[in-house]
## 1
Amino acid sequence: MTIDEAALGAYLEAHWTGFRGPVKAEKFAGGQSNPTFMLTHAGGRAVLRKKPPGQLLKSAHAVDREYRVMKALGGTPVPVPQMHVLCEDESVIGTAFYVMEFVDGRIIWDPAIPEVSQPDRTAIYDTMNAALAALHMVDPAAVGLGDFGRPGNYFSRQLSRWTEQYRASETEHLPDIDQVITWLEQNLPADDGRSSLVHGDYRIDNMIFAKDRPELLAVLDWELSTIGHPFADIAYQCMHWRLPHAGSFRGLAGIDRKAIGIPTEEEYVARYCERTGIDGIPNWDFYLAFCLFRMAAILQGVLKRALSGNASNPERAMQVKDNIPILARMAVDVIEKGP
């Protein structure tokens, strides 16, 4: 996947005061949803994220929302890159895109973080916890995001959305998925009135940390962000405590977390509750099962794009095929055995 560097350079010259051409765009290897490029120009480095080509699912790949929420969060306790420019004119490079600051740090791909000391590992998890709590304490209206989503009935709307998107990209029938969808529909918790900004994909490899210390420099990948229910984010991150640490999964299941300084799921949730001033999280089984189903739906979309020839990373996209039934079975286990 390449970008018309001449067209991009001309646009940036006209719309970004910090740009000095010419520009070179090199695609990062990772990522499934929105292709991401390193931009090198006479003024330094920056990062471009764009929509993928081809026919896209409704409301997916919302780079405009990513740009808006990160721009709004600049200056809050939530660490985000500085935003430079948003281009919604698809004629420039073929799809909408935005350009943001290049944050020079490290991305941690393995949640067990074997490359750091035990104290640093503990500190990294605590700083992730603190940033998530800080996000959920931001007043959306105060940062200009009062219309970023609809408050109330979040899980009802999300379940409908992801069921629709799963069915739109379904490539084979999985009875476990049917069971999970039915159970979720029948066990929706009553709306408790909680509402906040939510990230939607809050996990360790969507963050940039300092190279030499356990400091969180930036939270990335806000495509799924909205005004929603904060328990969706904390449950989604804790889902990774349960995912396998094998194959293309990067979870923490089977790892002696206590021995290496990673908090238990219960400890992580308790610290989050302490920071946000709540007593606990009821209906934990629902939130976990919902997050597992939503992940299965996201991966099903990745698989569908791969089969249609529109995936950002086609080879890796095809590898997710076996993960979808695993996630569905894990959700069934939560439903039948409890959290």
## 2
Amino acid sequence: MAKGSKKEIMFERMKEKKKEVKIVRRIVLAIVLIILVIVGIGGYSAYNYVTDGLKPYDADNNDPIAVSIPIGSGIDTISQTLEDNNIIRDARIFKYYVKFQNEGEFQAGDYTLTQSMTLDELIESLKTGRIYREPVFTMNIPEGLTLDQIADVIEAKTNHSAEDFFALVTSEEFVELARQQFPDLITDEVFGENVRYALEGYLYPATYPFYEENPSMETIAFAMLQGTQDNVQPYREILAEREKSVHWLLTFASLLEEEATAQTDRKTIASVFNNRLEIDMPLQTDPTVLYALGEHKDRVLYEDLEVQDPYNTYVNKGLPPGPIAGPGKASLEAAMDPSTSEYLYFLADPSGTNHFAETYEEHMANIQEYLR
């Protein structure tokens, strides 16, 4: 073979190798680019996944959601509970975020949370046992108000009319909705034949924080129902032991609330009512007469005492069919832990001081001394 031919063959082979190298390089480059694209897409997806998981479930939704954290719950259980109740987007991300923040020691209990809460707000709430947010405004519902009086407060503090709120909380549809939400609180007793309004006395008096400018009427009412649920919960065991119901407690406590003055001793008044009930003596408490009349009067007249109504404790023995107002904490406590006495009568003098008597004669003497 000629030298020229050998050189040409070698040259051709070198050209072929260069071509192969170029092709291999292109293939490697293509593979690398594909891998980078895949990694980039995966990384972007992972970034979006984590970012979304760190956001509130729904920043615009402030409706309260009742969530129960059982005693002994670990972070896995708590995270899953929050996800199941649509409070957070992803249980895993919440769990790792808690660990990253070196948080823990959450408190068991019943919480009212919202989908608009951030992860930090949820963590703070679970640590302290309360909702940790700055409210847009607060609304105070005083003790001893009836549903129509509460409606007036709502009208003064929100853009809802008293008429609309009262219509809501006395409607069959809302009462049934409340029963579904609070089945241990709203029982068959509220549907008793002589009960005037099913939810009378069930909207707890307290100062409520709200986290939006115009909360719905349902949001407001459910917050107050949750307040009652929370405040009767400590008494459930002893109520069961005494074979008494929550309805009984709210009814009895509402009488104490309406009879109360700034200086009154609710526990002693409770003992008077108990003593009367034990001997089948009518309670004869004026606030029940006013509730029967459906009027707010400064003074009860003798003719008013004879009004034929199930709520009038002058003509009917025992407790009225249901609460006559919203009792506060002090009245609930007095109903559950009354004083021990032999008193059957009491009256409040113009300064608000109560004077108790065991006999009718002593009571009449107190009337002569303090009211005439």
